[in-house]
Amino acid sequence: MAKVLIIDADQTFGKHAARMFSREGHESQVHRYLSEALLRPEIASAQVVFVESDQIAADLANGLSWILEQEAHPTVVVLAENLDEAFHQKAVEAGAWDVFPRPANPANLVQVLSQALDFRALSRETGKDIVEEVTRICPGLMTTSNRFTECLKLAGQAAKSDVSVLITGETGSGKELFAKVIHEMSRRSSGNLVLVDCASLPDNLIESTLFGHMRGSFTGAERTQEGLISQADKGTLFLDEVGELPPMIQKSFLRVLDEQSYRPIGGKTMKKSDFRVIAATNRDLNDMVEKNLFREDLLHRLMVITINVPPLRDRREDIPLLAQYHKKAICRRQGIPEIRISPEFMDLISLYHWPGNVRELIHSLERSIVAATGSNILYPAHLPIHIRSRKSGPPFAAGQMTRTQPRIEKPESFPDLPENSQTPSATSFFPSLKEERERVINRMERDYLERLIEHTGGNIARAVRISGLSRSRLYGLMKKYDVRRLK
Predict the structure, then answer these.
(1) Top-tier CATH class for 3-122
(2) Beta carbons of 406 and 66 less than 8 angstroms apart
């Protein structure tokens, strides 16, 4: 039996679908609006969520994120009145399992539910081992976020093949780490991972840098030089910021990808290079194609598998985990005793919007640890001033959905504000119910664990008996909050 949630403004349709699912032995709940469903406890345990496209169309990525990050990590099925190819692609990229036309007969969804559950079972069975292997190779990719976990699964699956991979995401979100872990998990791990920083390639040397050159082939070519493509033979060529690749080289590079051969500048014969390509960008390549800034055929060649890495602000639940990990790593690198993070410090970095993503978080931790010289605890005062003074992130336009203040249709049962009431300004900060609940629960769990370990003197067997937690769950929470056994 599965727990199913249906979010549809047409209550007749939703209730009919729920009856169909109940006849198959599933437990179903129906809500008219996403905002209404997010306030109900049953969404946390839903395994499959059916949501009509109108509920999330205004801000697709964030609308789906609110569902995907629930405790049970549900499989999300989007129902669209009119199946639009562009919407379908964006929904799947944002984490939906699939998009289906909204059927006239809700009974037709029974088969869709069965397929979604089969996919979910297989994905959970195979995905757990993949994610564990990825995070073992690269602990910096650790996560509790469902959306980020799906990225790790995709990276692990991509590593088992030789197809091209395109990694998209904001600067500092971890695209290079994904490239490294795909290379390390692939059959090419014994070869080189060759980085090509497309943004820094000088126009007059780009062909020489990629393809190499023969001695005397141009002024200044005093010796024969091997190109980066040659260095990537039997390994992986990582094209970082591929959107910056000059148009003049895109056509010739596409030919190299297709034929796995190239001619050095001044060379008379073609040379072979057996390499796998991984590309990364923070730009919208589809938009660049429409503006004739990027070749469409090259884009299709690069994006056989696409991994869309979410920004840190869309996986805030990972901030405490990442902060503890990188704090320890920084202390080890600097050769200093490990420092603790105060709850107030953790609260502040959990609320900050991190435009520079994980890279900015690491740099801020480094700065804070330097500022805390002589102290064994990090406090908010140790953070850079721009973080201490901007807890809520940048202002947002009216009507724009954000992770801290979602804009979703108001349920009809929600009363309107009195005419004389004050509406918060767009730039004021107030956390969502989910974020506030997570903050309170995290603080409570950390405090409870610290008192539990102190009360039991670090006796894990006794702590398990008192808390009612399993041993593995207790160890997991202790690791999450960096609570140590007493010595």
Answers:
(1) alpha beta
(2) yes
